[in-house]
Amino acid sequence: xxxxxxSIRLSDDELAxxxxxxxxxxxxxxxxxxxVSLDQVPRCTSDQEAVRQLRCIGHNxxxxxxxxxxxxxxxxxxxxxxxxxxxxxxxxxxxx
Length: 96
Prior knowledge:
Elements: H1 12-24, H2 29-37, H3 45-69, H4 75-95
C-alpha cells in the first residue's frame, strides 16, 4: 500500500483522458498513473479481448501449418490463411 502522496497538474482534457484510460482498465486514476509511471503496463479489458483474438488466430495458424506439413495446403487453406491475415490486420488497427 503506497504511503506517500504527490500531485500533478493536468488540464481538464488531460484529466478526462487519464480517467478514461484508468476506467478502461478497471483501475483508479491513481493506480493507473502509478503503474504507467513505473513502466508497468496496465491490463485493460480491451487488451484482454485482443489477447483472446490473438489466441484464436494462433490456433488457426497452427492448423494451417499442420496442413502445409502434411501436403494438404489447398485453395480452402489459402482462403483460411487470407482470413487469418485480415483478422490480424483488424486487430492491429484496434490496438494502434
